[in-house]
Design goal:
The complex is a heterodimer of chains A (289) and B (383).
Chain A (H helix, E strand, L loop, with lengths): L1 H28 L6 H18 L4 H30 L4 H22 L13 E4 L3 E4 H23 L1 H11 L1 H6 L4 H23 L10 H15 L4 H21 L7 H15 L11
Antiparallel strand pairs in A: 1-2
Chain B lengths: L7 H19 L3 H21 L1 H11 L1 H18 L4 H26 L7 H19 L3 H23 L4 H21 L16 E2 L2 E2 L4 E3 L2 E3 L1 H25 L1 H11 L1 H6 L4 H27 L9 H14 L4 H17 L6 H16 L19
Antiparallel strand pairs in B: 1-2, 3-4
Classes of the chains: A mainly alpha (289), B mainly alpha (383).
């Protein structure tokens, strides 16, 4: 049992970090970024190239990954999302743009990095073993700690920095923020870059444990979408709760349902549908209208 | 109140487009295909700059009846032009099958404004029901097709229920969940063949003649795809008529009202529950028909053809073509099937072409290729 809970917390921390990026982008631009999973995969591949291929230190690799993805996010926002949001009247256009971007990134990753599963050398060897009740490799513990540090860092940043305050104002009310002198275009871009960066960092963290491959992008987008909707769209604590809930559900169901075949996600999706029928706005979402 | 523009500009315009499409489909070489795409884009830009584009579109809008006949004739001739190239007919048939599915999806996404990612699942339900009845019980196609449509329609109704309380992105999430649930169920049941799929699905039979058989008339051999293609075209025509009638009926008006403002349509006495469920049921019946046609066309059905990706692609087709505009939906579907298919020589570029087409189209025409026109109330009583 302890093992299952520890696994859940480990998964949940990663998931929460992915969901944070998605929910940030959603809160700022009202865009559901279907390319989020692809950004995560891209981050994994960048880390793989720098740490695994070139043999640079891991910290540097993670830093470069964050910068690369932030640049990708900023470029995508400035040249793709901003013009389309300005010109189109219906939300569906941005959804389609995000899907198209997802296809595009998939293709770029395929062309640049190939379709093989890639992994990197372990960061630390050794396994933490508490009386055979909890068994956890040290590198997983390290990644978990890094993910939690990132989440805390992000929340502190949003709470106390000037940029964070501007982003929160923007999420609360775009027009009012503009009237108070917040440069909406600039902070929209910053927010998108930050969201993409979070996705990339998770990719960089997880590549050391599970490796990356091209096919992870789509399912990750869907999971991130679920977590955000469970917690409530555009609410930061909601995304963290959503991530933790999904992580725990996955780890508990995987161990209890293993004998019935591969139906973990079947149960998760069914409970999601029931949950959304009862609470259509998620745990902490604002009601409509 | 009708402007009477001469149909000439429209005729010339559609003939040019048709010729371009035929040449594009006939060309085999990747680089020539790419060159043609560039030339085509250049042509469109010049047409827009010289004003011909607007005149032609106006002419097409004013002479809808004549243009529909023209498009019908063009479509009927198309397979005959490729007698020696069954592969092109195969792609064209596939595109037409997907057109039926997107026409149904358009009811939900375009008319009623509910972005539904589960259309791939309904497609799969239609295909699986039809295929299973055929393989296990030996029912003829003309019984399995309506059974597949009915099953998909009932599925649509059932999935409509949990979406009733949700809106926008939450509604999309419920449909995504539904798509995954259907996919995982089919994957895990024994009697659906699981990941192996269902092989050996028979072809439909009309008057003792099996559709999809090679026919030899003297010196001419008609490839088997051809007959199936014409059958699909007949179904597509039926689907178009049905979609058109739905759009112009009270159903369509109610869906549009709900899309534009739920609260005010309730104030006018519309039942949201009923209208939304109808949108889901009707839309998924279309998908069920498309799925059944697909299963019997390919002769094999597996879970790969009902995944979430298919649903996403179908949504892309509808939005790309132009929501709530039947001609636009057809154009979007053909475009997203045929262009990647032409570039398949380089499998790696397939996704790239999807992505590029979507991104470029959205930058230049965010409302889709053929945006829908506002509904007009015509005082003379004829639309």
């Amino acid at each position: 049992m302890e093992q299952i809970l520890v696994n859940g917390a480990y998964l949940g921390a990663q998931y929460a970090l992915i969901a944070l990026g998605l929910t940030l982008i959603f809160a700022l631009m009202n865009v559901m970024n279907f390319a989020h999973g692809q950004m995560y995969v891209l981050g994994g591949f960048v880390t793989y190239t720098i740490y695994g291929q070139l043999g640079m230190p891991y910290a540097l690799a993670l830093f470069v990954t964050a910068i690369t993805l932030a640049v990708v996010g900023a470029v995508v926002e400035k040249f793709l999302f901003r013009p389309v949001i300005k010109r189109s009247q219906r939300d569906e256009s941005t959804m389609l743009l995000a899907a198209g971007l997802g296809f595009f990134l998939d293709a770029v990753i395929l062309l640049v990095f190939g379709e093989k599963q890639r992994g990197v050398p372990k960061l630390i060897n050794g396994v933490f073993n508490w009386d055979f009740r909890v068994i956890m490799p040290y590198d997983r513990i390290l990644i978990f700690a890094l993910a939690v540090a990132c989440i805390i860092g992000f929340m502190l940043f949003m709470q106390y920095s000037k940029t964070g305050r501007a982003l929160r104002a923007l999420a609360q009310d775009r027009d009012a923020a503009q009237l108070m002198g917040v440069d909406v275009d600039r902070y929209g871009m910053t927010g998108f870059a930050l969201g993409a960066m979070l996705a990339g960092i998770v990719g960089g963290l997880l590549v050391t444990i599970t490796g990356v491959n091209l096919g992870m992008g789509g399912p990750t987008s869907t999971k991130a979408f679920m977590m955000v909707m469970i917690g409530g769209a555009g609410v930061i604590p909601g995304a963290i709760f959503g991530g933790l809930i999904l992580g725990f559900m996955e780890s508990i169901l995987l161990s209890t349902l293993a004998s019935y075949g591969d139906i973990t996600y079947l149960v998760i999706f069914v409970s999601l549908m029931i949950f959304l029928a009862i609470r259509p706005n998620g745990l902490m979402g604002k009601p409509w209208g | 109140m009708k402007k009477n523009t001469s149909p000439a500009a429209g005729f010339i315009f559609s003939s040019i487009i048709y010729a371009a499409v035929v040449i594009f489909m006939a060309v085999d070489d990747l680089y020539i295909s790419l060159g043609l795409i560039v030339a085509f884009a250049a042509g469109i830009i010049t047409a827009v700059k010289t004003g011909f584009w607007q005149r032609a579109l106006g002419s097409i809008n004013d002479n809808t009846g004549k243009m529909t006949v023209l498009a019908g004739i063009f479509t009927l001739i198309l397979p005959l032009l490729f007698l020696n190239n069954p592969y092109v007919i195969h792609i064209f048939t596939l595109a037409c099958i997907y057109c039926i599915a997107t026409l149904g999806l358009n009811i939900q996404v375009g008319s009623a404004g509910m972005v539904n990612f589960a259309q791939g699942a309904f497609f799969g339900v239609g295909a699986y029901v039809s295929a299973l009845l055929d393989v296990h019980f030996g029912f003829p196609f003309w019984i399995t097709l309506p059974a597949g449509m009915a099953a998909a329609g009932i599925m649509g109704l059932l999935m409509g229920l949990p979406t009733l309380k949700t809106r926008e992105y939450h509604l999309s999430l419920v449909t995504i969940a539904c798509a995954y649930i259907s996919f995982l169920l089919v994957m895990n049941f024994k009697w659906t063949g699981g990941p192996d799929g269902i092989p050996d699905i028979s072809k439909p039979v009309i008057f003792g003649m099996e559709i999809g058989q090679k026919i030899t008339l003297g010196s001419i051999t008609i490839p088997g795809v051809m007959t199936y293609c014409y059958m699909v075209l007949a179904f597509l025509a039926l689907a178009l008529i049905a979609a058109r009638r739905l759009q112009n009926s009270w159903y369509g008006l109610a869906w549009n009202a709900i899309r534009d403002d739920e609260i005010s349509s309730r104030c006018y006495g519309l039942s949201l529950t009923r209208s939304k469920l109808e949108a889901f049921a009707f839309g998924s019946i279309f998908a069920g028909a498309a799925g059944a046609l697909y299963a019997h066309f390919i002769g094999f059905m597996s879970t790969e053809n009902m995944s979430f990706q298919i649903g996403l692609l179908l949504v892309c087709m509808v939005i790309l073509g132009g929501m709530d505009n039947l001609a636009g939906v057809l154009v979007g579907t053909l475009l997203l099937i045929i262009i990647p298919e032409k570039l398949r020589a380089f499998e790696d570029y397939r996704m790239l072409s999807y992505g590029l087409v979507l991104i470029l189209m959205l930058i230049f025409r965010p409302e889709g290729i053929l945006p829908s026109k506002p509904r007009m109330f015509n005082l003379t009583g004829r639309g």
